[in-house]
Amino acid sequence: MTEQVKIIATTGKGGVGKTSLSAAFVRILSDKYPDRRILAIDADPAVGLSTALGVEVGITLDDIRKGIVSSVENGRNREAVEMLGEARFRVLDALTEKDGFSFIAIGRPESAGCYCKVNAYLKEIIELITKDFDYVVIDGEAGIEQINRRVMEKVSHLVLVSDGSRKGIQVIGTIKNVADSLVMYDEYGIVINRIPAGLANDFPGVDSEKLLAVIPDDPVQTKNDMVGESVFSLADNSPLMEGARKALSRLGII
Amino acid sequence: MELYNEFIDDILKKAENSAFYPYNPSAVCDRTDSGTLILSKEAAFELGGMGLPAVNSTLFCTNRDIKDGVFVLGKDIGSLTADTPYARAAIIALDEKAVEDDDGVYRQLKDIEFAKYHVFPKGCLIRLSPESRREQIRVSKKAVKDGLSLKSIGFTFIEEYKKNPSVKAVTVVFITDPSFDYKKLKADSEKAFAVTESLNKIFDGLEISCDTCELKAICDEVEGLRQLHFGKEK
């Protein structure tokens, strides 16, 4: 384990390919660093990263949260240390270990009401787990507040993902402003994804210094998504894999 | 305090022919601050893993001759090769003064019990569930190679419990013998837990009618609780 865990979070507008890119990051890191500990966190309630990585999701962190909330609601009042102990106990059951990486899903929050105490413990647990990994890749839902609210306070590398649309680029601009105000990252970069063939690589509003990669639209990847194939079935020289590799290299991670 | 004596007698009787290691403070495990994650691929085995029995029990007394040390019923870590049933009982002898203050005794017992959440021996991952009263230990391959033992883990628990000045002595009983009656131990652990919880309610004076009290069953079963309750009412 390294002293400083590298936490890479992808974020951006819905449908721009964050999940595929996150999965590609996990594949590249697990290929390049087979002896390191790599954790993939699916922070999107749609739990798409599991499919992209070929992982079957068992229990999620929200299942654990709901279980603890339910026991509290049933009158079994727990002290802070016990609640943390229970969360620590159960979280290991939610961790799926695959060849080369581990996976955990945040899940879908469904319980009504405020359970800040439980959420706070879960966040603490995630932070306890991530400290034991070398690389953590987080596939977030659209927007960055969710990372702050339910997953972790800070990431080392923020990857803003957009398609070529003006709206997509506006969204990553907004997300970056929020992230700046919360001091949530050490470094950031932009990936423009799914660019149709023949379209110029000129994106108004994108700082070219921070442009990590431009990934062309790939029919093979689109088909992969449709049939639910994992990124491990993609060719190593596919546009997605090459773009993801370029992005990690420019961030200094590989 | 005699409330847990029945459970203490039972477990000490079962342990009497097993190896006993007197506490040696210089033989405790190396520790980490907040625990280390051990992945399955890095683990040699997990005590209480794979749905096997895994019981944790904390028992208190004031009037027993408890010695600082560790019993191991069954194989120690160095002789194990696969997941195995597992239990750990801590028998904690307290200073009489610690239980003199009726209103503070529950808090005192819980604070001592919570010491178990602060024991993080290097090379293993101890998981404790207050809900199910399960305790599991995932042991890394490296720790097995380095000679980690239940004896040294037990010493580490004793070291932690004894940080509380009210703790006079601690006997830790580890069980890995597959033929042990874990079902009964689990049931006793549930009862011991209920006894501790009932102290909170009794000393709070929240319930004064046995007919409606949800703790009636445990009060009826554990000699001393009813007496304690009515003593408090007076």
Quickly describe the structure:
The complex is a heterodimer of chains A (254) and B (234). Chain A is α/β, with parallel strands linked by helices. Chain A has helices spanning 18-32, 48-53, 61-73, 80-94, 116-130, 145-151, 166-182, 219-227, 239-250; strands at 6-12, 38-43, 96-98, 101-105, 135-140, 155-162, 185-195, 211-216.
Please render the helix and strand layout as text:
The complex is a heterodimer of chains A (254) and B (234).
Chain A: E1 6-12, H1 18-32, E2 38-43, H2 48-53, H3 61-73, H4 80-94, E3 96-98, E4 101-105, H5 116-130, E5 135-140, H6 145-151, E6 155-162, H7 166-182, E7 185-195, E8 211-216, H8 219-227, H9 239-250
Parallel strand pairs in A: 1-5, 1-6, 2-4, 2-5, 6-7, 7-8
Antiparallel strand pairs in A: 3-4
Helix pairs in contact in A: 1-9, 3-4, 4-5
Chain B: H1 5-15, E1 19-22, E2 43-47, E3 54-61, E4 69-73, E5 86-94, H2 102-113, E6 124-129, E7 134-140, H3 141-145, H4 150-161, E8 167-175, H5 182-204, H6 216-221, H7 225-233
Parallel strand pairs in B: 3-5, 4-8
Antiparallel strand pairs in B: 1-4, 2-7, 5-8, 6-7
Helix pairs in contact in B: 2-5, 5-7
Task: Give a written overview of the molecule.
The complex is a heterodimer of chains A (254) and B (234). With 254 residues, chain A is an alpha/beta fold. Helices cover 43% and strands 20% of the residues of chain A. Chain A has one domain (6-250): Rossmann fold (3-Layer(aba) Sandwich). In chain A, helix 1 packs across helix 9 (239-250), helix 3 packs antiparallel against helix 4 (80-94) and helix 4 (80-94) crosses helix 5. Chain B has 234 residues and is α/β, with parallel strands linked by helices. In chain B, the strands form 2 sheets. A 5-stranded mixed beta sheet of chain B has the order 1-4-8-5-3, sandwiched between helices. In chain B, strands 2-7-6 form a 3-stranded antiparallel beta sheet. The interface between A and B is medium-sized, with 20 and 19 residues.
